[in-house]
Write a structure and sequence with these properties.
five-stranded parallel beta sheet, about 5% strand, mainly alpha, 7 strands, two-stranded antiparallel ribbon
């Protein structure tokens, strides 16, 4: 018997082991979806971007799913070989498949594949086309899927290309899927039929480049400085091939004849190997010397323009650059800015120049550029020797760059200032090294900052004076992040060196306060912060005094004394107002916003945090920016800005990824945002990561907050298992909070959640104990402080009463909680109370009241896109009317609404058709859609839905509360 096509599958499935491209999950998801819906997918991108890796991954996945896969990958030399690509593509197909073809097509195909003599009747082209179509049809017999991978369409030989065009235009009826790769800018054959989707491969992100280098070189790649990783990412443009070539550990990144040009600045980026330079600049080899000199000048300038090149003495720079522009080396924007085709070409030009050419270019630019910071940089690079006056100029330029919000540039200039400082000027050199360390901290380059500070502390020759050693220790404290547990020795040694210097002692005491707070001792934190404020006042260091008073106010609020906190915060604000120049204490502004949040002044807190981001983000360091963004997430969640909170949490993650800094704060922000608008699974995962990170850092304060976020996400699942997990998390937070003597609204909310979880488990006695403890913490509170937390307590008290079967008492407590929250801009808190109220009334079989509360909750959730709470509300509605989930009529179109209204009023389908001047069939179809959308199955269910609409309180009453007015104006 003739073998069936399936017999060839084992051979066709053979291939290299599966690979997983880095940083490409989103792209692969889109490609998979395209291949499910379209016959042909076209993947494009520049050389080295990873097209082949991506199609290999798609092919591997297809094979793993039992899809027969044929692949060809022609190269430059293959384009001149007739049917070379076809031979490659069909190589795995066994002779048994060819044997089933009719004689004439079989002979034509065997000839093309060099398996037989060429036909002599002149009909070989048509016969070959028929043969290939027949062969592929056989491989897809009985619906078996077949994928053709054409990797490198731009290198197809012409006969293969013509044949594959014929196949591609018949892919859908043949049951084929085709995925091709093609280099950007090439002129490929007209392979693609109408409807083909083109996907351009995006560049790798910074984290993707880091993973690539680590995968290429192993763990040693992790030792690359963050600044070098950033430069490799920037210069390579995210191209994997270029990134590997630029990495210093990569075997191909150096060649024996490579020389490293002198006079290069740190901002010039990583060195481009000579072999790669030659390839990148091959098209420029025949350009006149004047043109190459102009290209070098443009490459040396940070922001080259035609005006700048004209000022350098070139009468018509656009005309001179016309040749390079035709070659794709440069382009000119409408505003006259000169852009290189790829950052690698700029880097190659810089590294291909001689030292003399580079110094000359910097000398010219030092005279021409208008920006004094850039002018100082070019002057330094044009003067590669030590010079005291130049070092002083560079030091001032670095400070100007930092003030302008350019910490990367400030760091580079400060390093140049160190290098240009004469060897005998030890004190000046150390001061400038510490300046560089401070700028590195601002830019998130903690590795560089630590290296500079440690060198100051370890240098035996020309030892730093005590004040400089204290500054070095302060840098090390700033780079410790949340992990301050092991820094006691740094602080004590600094205090010993700072004897007699009240200003430095104040800064060290401030760090001691932060360390105590993160370590779990609010009493010690308050004591150290107060001492820091006193010392700062003695030293007339108003900035440190403002920070110390702000921290003290925060600690006092955490300890449940809002009156003391308000007084201390007023002192801090007064001190900030007396500062010379505009008050710009970002930490103090954040503390003001969070104090407003404790008082449920959410609109004011939002305005303050937003203003802080807008005014000072450019001048803020990475960790300072992260703290502001995390505060914004907290405010957005409380305000009900659910989608915005998710977006801000993503910004937190990107900020840390770009800076390559580990911190649990971003995970904490993600947990809050996911609980509000994402999924509870992701919320629990993020909160767990925040718990683990805070534990590793020894940061008890954020550990408590992370445990609270985890407990809330577990509790909102609404299941006994979730409640049991929530009790475990929240009980741990309770114990840690008690040890820290916390009595703020966040602490009370966590205790309310713990009591709610215990009530869900039937542990009413223990829940009552937790509530009594929470009430005792509020003894020192003064209105309007903590109103939302008190409402959360009332909600938990109502649920405990409901668990005891005391429905009247439960309804009173839940009603009081809802009434309190209607006067506050805390929509998600109101939703939680309404769900709790509706659930309690449902269990008491008070269906009308339950339906009203739950429908209002669902309406608010839809308005705010609060997905997790919406699911809870709908689950309760499902329990209220089993089998007939009642949704609001917001989901119906106008015509559907008219039909629903008439039917729920008792009209028959024929009566509805007559009233609306449509056919009965149209009414039946519309009614089916209405049933599906509202989750009902009958006219009775539809009538119930209409009845529920009469109880949608949020439509009329809730929208007119301060809560929803705040949402509308957000």
């Amino acid at each position: 018997m003739t073998p069936t096509p399936v017999r060839t599958t084992a051979r066709l499935l053979a291939g290299p082991p599966p690979i997983r491209p880095l940083d490409r999950d989103g792209f692969l998801d889109t490609a998979r979806a395209a291949l499910r819906s379209r016959p042909v997918l076209r993947i494009t991108g520049p050389a080295g971007i990873g097209k082949s890796t991506l199609v290999q991954a798609l092919a591997d996945e297809a094979r793993a799913q039992g899809v027969t896969t044929l692949r060809c990958a022609p190269g430059p030399d293959d384009s001149l070989l007739p049917y070379g690509a076809l031979v490659d593509l069909l190589a795995p197909v066994g002779p048994e498949s060819l044997a089933r073809l009719p004689a004439e097509p079989r002979a034509a195909l065997r000839a093309a594949l060099l398996r037989g003599p060429e036909p002599t009747d002149g009909r070989d082209r048509l016969a070959l086309r028929l043969a290939v179509v027949e062969l592929l049809s056989g491989l897809t017999a009985d619906g078996a899927p077949l994928l053709l991978v054409l990797d490198g369409v731009h290198w197809l030989d012409r006969p293969s290309a013509e044949l594959l065009v014929y196949v591609a235009h018949r892919a859908d009826p043949l049951g084929l899927r085709i995925v091709s790769t093609e280099r950007s800018g090439e002129d490929p054959p007209p392979l693609y039929p109408p409807g083909t989707l083109e996907l351009a491969v995006p560049p790798l992100s910074l984290s993707g480049v880091e993973q690539l280098l680590a995968q290429d070189a192993g763990p040693g790649a992790a030792d690359l400085p963050v600044r070098l990783l950033r430069q490799i990412h920037e210069v390579s443009g995210g191209n994997p091939s270029y990134a590997l070539a630029l990495a210093p550990h990569h075997p191909g990144s150096r060649h024996p004849d490579d020389r490293h040009p002198e006079g290069r600045g740190a901002a010039d980026g990583p060195y481009v190997p000579s072999a790669l330079r030659r390839r990148l600049l091959a098209s420029a080899a025949g350009l006149p010397p004047q043109t190459r000199a102009l290209l070098l000048l443009a490459a040396t300038a940070a922001r080259p323009t035609l005006d700048l090149l004209r000022a350098a003495g070139v009468a018509d720079p656009a005309a001179v650059l016309a040749g390079p522009e035709r070659l794709g080396l440069v382009g000119t924007d409408a505003d006259g800015a000169v852009r290189f085709g790829h950052p690698m070409q700029r880097a190659a030009l810089l590294d291909d120049a001689t030292t003399r050419e580079r110094l000359a270019a910097h000398t010219v630019l030092a005279e021409l550029v208008p920006d004094p910071v850039e002018r100082a940089r070019h002057l330094a690079l044009a003067t590669p020797y030590q010079d005291a006056a130049l070092a002083e100029l560079l030091s001032g330029a670095a400070a100007s760059a930092r003030t302008a919000g350019r910490p990367d540039t400030a760091y580079e200039l400060a390093v140049l200032a160190v290098e240009r400082t004469p060897a005998g000027h030890h004190a000046d050199r150390t001061d400038r090294l510490l300046d560089a360390a401070g700028f590195a901290v601002d830019a998130g380059m903690h590795e560089e900052a630590r290296r500079a500070a440690e060198s100051v502390l370890a240098t035996p020759a020309g030892p730093a004076d005590p004040d400089q050693r204290v500054r070095a220790r302060l840098v090390l404290l700033e780079t410790a992040g949340q992990a301050l547990g092991d820094t006691r020795g740094l602080i004590e040694a600094g205090l010993a060196d700072a004897i007699g210097n009240a200003g430095l002692q104040a800064r060290l005491r401030l760090w001691a306060a932060v360390r105590a707070l993160l370590g779990g001792s609010t009493a010690t934190a308050a004591e150290q912060a107060a001492r820091a404020a006193e010392l700062a006042a003695l030293a007339d260091d108003r900035s440190t005094r403002v920070s110390a008073l702000g921290l003290l106010a925060t600690v006092q609020a955490m300890r449940g004394t809002p009156g003391d906190a308000e007084h201390t915060l007023a002192l801090a604000l007064s001190a900030a107002d007396s500062l010379a120049g505009p008050a710009d204490d970002r930490s103090l502004m954040r503390r003001q916003a969070l104090a407003e949040l404790d008082a449920d002044q959410v609109v004011e807190a939002h305005a303050r945090i937003t203003a802080l981001l807008e005014r000072s983000q450019a001048r803020a360091g990475v960790e300072d920016s992260l703290a502001t963004l995390v505060a914004l997430v907290r405010v957005q969640v409380r305000r009900g800005e659910c989608a915005q909170a998710l977006a801000t949490a993503e910004r937190c993650g990107r900020l840390l990824t770009d800076a390559d800094l580990p911190s649990p704060l971003a995970a904490y922000a993600a947990a809050l945002a996911e609980t509000a608008a994402g999924t509870l699974d992701r919320a629990r995962a993020a909160a767990g990561a925040a718990v683990d990170g805070s534990t590793a850092d020894g940061d008890r304060l954020f550990l408590i907050r992370a445990l609270g976020a985890l407990g809330t996400a577990q509790l909102l699942a609404g299941s006994p298992d979730g409640a049991a997990a929530a009790v475990e998390s929240l009980q741990r937070a309770r114990e840690l909070g008690a040890a820290m003597e916390l009595a703020d609204p966040d602490t009370v909310r966590r205790l309310a959640d713990l009591a709610e979880a215990l009530a869900l488990l039937g542990e009413t006695a223990e829940a009552a104990e937790v509530l009594a403890e929470a009430r005792s913490l509020t003894a020192g509170w003064t209105p309007p402080w903590g109103g939302g937390a008190l409402a959360a307590l009332e909600r938990a008290e109502g649920l405990v009463q409901a668990a005891l079967g005391r429905i009247g008492a439960a309804a009173d407590a839940l009603s009081a909680s809802a009434e309190r929250l209607r006067g506050l801009p805390l929509p998600l808190e109101l939703v939680r109370t309404l769900i709790a109220w509706g659930g309690a009334e449902r269990r008491a079989r008070h269906r009308v009241v339950a339906r009203a509360a739950l429908t209002e909750a669902a309406g608010i959730c839809r308005l705010l896109a609060a997905a997790p709470l919406l699911r809870r509300a709908e689950e309760e509605l499902d329990r209220l009317s089993p089998g007939e989930r009642v949704r609001t009529a917001m989901e119906l179109t106008a015509s559907e609404q008219r039909v629903a209204d008439l039917v729920s009023a008792g009209a028959t389908n024929r009566e509805v058709a007559a009233a609306l001047f449509v056919s009965v069939k149209t009414v039946e179809g519309t009614l089916s859609r209405v049933y599906r959308k509202l989750g009902v199955r009958s006219r009775t269910g539809l009538a119930r839905a209409a009845d529920i609409r009469g109880h949608e309180l949020f439509t009329d009453r809730a929208r007119d509360t301060p809560l929803m007015r705040g949402v509308r104006t957000s």
